[in-house]
């Protein structure tokens, strides 16, 4: 009798027997079809906004020894703003014709996002067989940040992958390789540069060798090959530090668009900066030994501060906040409250709030929701950590950390929040052999007295399900 290969047998239609299977059977087809729609239809169709054309033109100019930094900054069209090191990295895209080159760049970014999705799952010790896998994949590819990264065809998917590789290697203390991943990203655009502070407070100084060395080497290689490398310093560099009043969701950008006085814009940014500094201090003081929570939360705080407080912040930068959002599965996460997800809706939702009936209101909602979301997230993190600190000080338990009493004891050195929690919910009989989980073949105690056992060993919910359950 013919038996289908194992990988095909996984696709055989069958009825779900558990809640987890029901969710997975429902989410996987929706997630996969959504991914295909975003890559093959939306991205290939493109948009009026085309971030890829100036990159392609710069690659052509570089390969043909023509000036690269010739953008007209008085126009609102996308400009080529990458340094010589980025130009060197992008140069191969100019070998093909524009259309095929763009399709290849879309596939490259899509592949980078999918690999980053898998690394994000593994960062929090989930597997592809968990409920979290299709839920995360669907959430990522329905967000504005992923959709417009593919549709506008920019490099943010590769930057997200560099961030995920950096976080994995940083936690594993593979400092030189972690720095290399970060340095390659910085060579293209410096968006991830604030993450060097995370390495610094963890005293992982070797990260700096390659994070700084890689861009220097690539710039040194590209410099003599370009016709106008000094124009990057003379023309493009100063423009990067200006706050433009279009396609800019940073506080200063929206302040310029709405005509707010400079003192008010600076006042808002200074207040938000103080909240960020206090949050970072509390994270360093009380959570630096809780490695996964500290690295993902502090990285997210640094990046959202960069987006909101710098001269330029665009909505699709929010892709780099996925590790912070995914930290919601940790019991002591700062994301376990509804205001945090109001903020997330502001900068992640693909919804369009422009209204034909209420034009002014709709335009204001659309233009301000990203800035509102970033600043609200800064406020939420500050309030959660500040409330924990004040409660712990009031109760005289600062020496043991500031986690609420309902959270398990503060982990010791080397212990992360992603390790299995105490067994207060069922455990799957088909648990994997990951650290902290019982082998699938381990004997289970039988219920006694005709009643269902409530012991941890006799329950049937996986660790992944437990983490995402409503408490």
Automatic annotation (TrEMBL):
Belongs to the glycosyltransferase 87 family. It comes from Nocardia callitridis. The keyword Heme does not apply. Residues 451-461 have a biased composition (Low complexity). It is a multi-pass membrane protein. The chain crosses the membrane at residues 21-41, 103-120, 150-171, 177-200, 207-226, 263-284, 291-309, 367-385. Residues 462-471 have a biased composition (Basic and acidic residues). This is Arabinofuranan 3-O-arabinosyltransferase. InterPro entries: GT87. The keyword Cell membrane applies. Pfam families: GT87. It comes from the Bacteria. Residues 409-471 are annotated as: Disordered. Its main location: membrane. It is found in: Cell membrane. Keywords: Cell membrane, Membrane, Transferase, Transmembrane, Transmembrane helix.
């Amino acid at each position: 009798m013919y038996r289908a290969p194992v990988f095909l047998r996984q696709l055989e239609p069958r009825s779900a027997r558990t809640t987890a299977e029901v969710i997975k059977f429902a989410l996987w087809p929706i997630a996969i079809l959504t991914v295909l729609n975003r890559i093959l239809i939306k991205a290939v169709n493109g948009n009026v906004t085309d971030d890829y054309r100036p990159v392609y033109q710069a690659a052509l100019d570089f390969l043909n020894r023509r000036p690269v930094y010739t953008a007209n900054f008085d126009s609102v069209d996308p400009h080529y703003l990458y340094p010589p090191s980025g130009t060197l990295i992008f140069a191969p895209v100019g070998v093909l014709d524009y259309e095929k080159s763009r399709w290849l760049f879309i596939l490259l970014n899509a592949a980078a996002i999918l690999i980053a999705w898998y690394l994000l799952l593994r960062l929090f010790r989930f597997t592809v067989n968990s409920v979290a896998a299709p839920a995360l994949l669907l959430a990522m590819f329905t967000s504005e940040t992923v959709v417009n990264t593919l549709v506008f065809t920019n490099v943010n998917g590769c930057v997200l992958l560099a961030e995920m590789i950096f976080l994995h290697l940083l936690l594993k203390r593979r400092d030189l390789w972690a720095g290399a991943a970060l340095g390659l990203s910085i060579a293209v655009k410096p968006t991830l540069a604030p993450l060097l502070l995370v390495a610094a407070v963890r005293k992982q100084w070797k990260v700096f060798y390659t994070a700084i060395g890689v861009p220097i080497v690539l710039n040194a290689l590209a410099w003599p090959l370009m016709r106008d490398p000094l124009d990057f310093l003379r023309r493009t560099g100063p423009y990067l530090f200006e706050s433009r009043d279009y396609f800019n969701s940073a506080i200063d950008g929206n302040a310029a668009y709405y005509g707010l006085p400079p003192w008010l814009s600076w006042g808002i940014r200074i207040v938000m900066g103080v909240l960020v500094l206090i949050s970072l201090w509390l994270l360093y003081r009380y959570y630096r030994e809780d490695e996964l929570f500290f690295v993902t939360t502090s990285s997210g705080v640094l990046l959202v501060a960069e987006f909101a407080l710098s001269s330029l912040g665009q909505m699709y930068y929010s892709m780099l906040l996925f590790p912070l959002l995914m930290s919601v599965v940790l019991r002591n996460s700062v994301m376990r409250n509804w205001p945090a997800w109001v903020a997330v809706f502001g900068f992640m939702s693909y919804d369009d709030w422009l209204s034909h009936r209420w034009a002014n209101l709709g335009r204001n909602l659309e233009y301000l929701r990203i800035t509102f979301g970033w600043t609200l997230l800064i406020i939420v993190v500050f309030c959660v950590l500040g409330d924990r600190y004040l409660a712990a000080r009031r109760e005289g338990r600062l020496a043991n950390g500031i986690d609420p009493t309902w959270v398990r004891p503060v982990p010791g050195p080397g212990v992360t929040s992603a390790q299995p929690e105490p067994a207060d919910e069922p455990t799957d009989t088909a648990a994997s052999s990951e650290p902290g989980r019982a082998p699938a073949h381990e004997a289970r105690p039988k219920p006694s007295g005709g009643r269902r056992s409530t012991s941890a060993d006799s329950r049937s919910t996986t660790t992944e399900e437990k983490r995402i359950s409503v408490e």
